[in-house]
Design a protein that fits this description.
Layout (H helix, E strand, L loop, with lengths): L4 E4 L7 H8 L5 E5 L15 E4 L7 H5 L5 E3 L7 H21 L5 E4 L8 H4 L2 H16 L5 E3 L4 E2 L1 E4 L2 E4 L1 H13 L1 H4 L9 H4 L3 E2 H13 L5 E3 L1 H12 L1
Parallel strand pairs: 1-2, 1-4, 2-3, 4-5, 5-6, 6-11, 7-10
Antiparallel strand pairs: 8-9
Helix pairs in contact: 1-9, 3-5, 9-10
Length: about 240
């Protein structure tokens, strides 16, 4: 990857594994995080330029100068107001700042379009995510990228402890892929996506982002299957 990228992230997303995967391909990488560099001493963290800052009060001239793409992994849960703020408002601010500074591409890690009952989709989590998506697609109609993975699995660190989400995610992904032809008729049932939407390896999300950064023809909204296809293309 020949272009620099800035990641605006939250710890809640477990984006360390995401950054580590991107580093295997390119090392011109900047991460903006509220507390800056993680406290643990994994060697890969030394290969990232860490910038401490809250997205609501960020000094964007320090974060965005020299970048040719912005990747947002901002997201999280909480009460209604908190979810609207972190999933929607925070991402919207990042999109607007990137546009103002002339960054040519914005990549948003969003969420799968679950076939849930409408009253559940009005929660702050989903409305915030969709608000952020709309901002990306309106400000970057021919270069903005929205990735919609479901459950993202990989190894995640919380307070220095590693949680191997891949122990659950990987076999579940393989199982759902193997029975896909049998479960497709069930996809019309409300809420079935919660069980049938296959998990996504964090490496696939990262490689899809790499594809988005290096390929100017890669833009728009990408489903779980399209994320995996994009990742496969980037690995070639």
């Amino acid at each position: 990857m020949s272009k620099d990228a800035t990641v605006v992230r939250s710890r809640e997303t477990g984006s360390e594994a995401f950054i580590l995967t991107v580093l295997r391909v390119d090392k011109t990488f900047y991460a903006n995080d509220r507390s800056g560099r993680p406290s643990y001493s994994d060697p890969w963290a030394d290969e990232v330029t860490w910038l401490a800052g809250d997205v609501f009060y960020a000094r964007w001239e320090d974060v965005l100068v020299g970048a040719t793409a912005v990747v947002s992994t901002l997201g999280g849960f909480g009460n209604e107001e908190q979810m609207k703020r972190i999933n929607g408002e925070a991402n919207t601010i990042a999109v607007d700042a990137a546009k103002e500074f002339g960054i040519p591409k914005f990549i948003l890690i969003s969420v799968h379009d679950y076939n849930l009952p409408s009253f559940l989709l009005t929660s702050g989590y989903f409305t915030g995510k969709r608000k952020a998506e709309s901002e990306v697609l309106s400000k970057y109609p021919s270069s903005g990228v929205v990735l919609r993975p479901g459950f993202i699995y990989g190894k995640r660190k919380v307070d220095g402890y590693e949680i191997p989400l891949d122990i659950v995610g990987q076999p579940l992904e393989k199982l759902l892929s193997s029975v896909e032809n049998f479960t497709k008729p069930l996809s019309a049932l409300p809420g079935s996506d919660l069980v049938l939407a296959p998990p996504v390896n964090v490496d696939d999300v990262a490689y899809a982002v790499i594809n988005a950064v290096i390929d100017d023809s890669f833009f728009g909204v990408f489903t779980i299957e399209q994320i995996k296809e994009a990742a496969a293309s980037a690995r070639v």
